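Example 3.2
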Amino acid sequence: MLRRLHLHSTHKTIPAPRLTSLFFLFLSLSNHGNFVKAHVFIYAGCSQEKYEPNSPFEGNHNSLLSSVFSSSSQASYNSFAIGNGSSTPPEGICYGLYQCRGDLRTADCSRCIESAVNQISLVCPYSYGAALQLEGCYVRYEHIDFLGRLDTSLRYKKCSRSVNTDVEFFKRRDDVLADLTVAMGFKVSSSGSVEGYAQCLGDLSSSDCSACLAAAVAQLKNLCGSAAAADVYLGQCYARYWASGYYDRSSDSSSEDDVGKTVAIIVGVLAGVAILIVFLSICRRAMD
């Protein structure tokens, strides 16, 4: 990938959105009450290079995000090349994809993608490339063609507390991870007290999916060692395992991500200010 995406998975300063984007986001928050909890932020990556407002790339970028949202009501995965094969200059072409977790219903997939599309322009304003992973879905766009190209770079990891002495747990965990390495698309696995799932992006070939999942499982073991639960996200796949009931007992399952909180708070405050301004404007006109 020519343009490096700088990853963010903790607090990030987010610039104020334009008014139209603000109302779109506010409506989304209002329609999906438990917005942050339902669509937990995992990580985001933004290119350092920025495009200019009203540039050819901005138009194609907006068209791509619109297509992503529209398509998500019909399919859990799709990829796009907007401006390719036309008179658009190379720097104006926008490639992108989205994917939902394989166990989401179509309606839930569409809502998750709506959340991701809303957030990606907030977290990565005017970026030539961006990727955003939520708990249930993923969106990425670039101005270079990245589709179908294997990428096993580490994007995010999370390791829980250790369970050093539980021999039976590690045997079960290894059984689950071995099963997940042969996943094609989305796969759920369990062995005794251990559960897990894994998924590749839809643009990968079968052989590249296998290679990506093998790398993800290796990272789980190397980076998280004896953790009772662990998540690893690579460029084009992810894998997770946990002890049965772990996420029910853990505060992690009910706590919002810090960036998700930041987005929700900023949008809520700005939306309130915007509504107040509109209300005062209407009152002033009525008095004139």
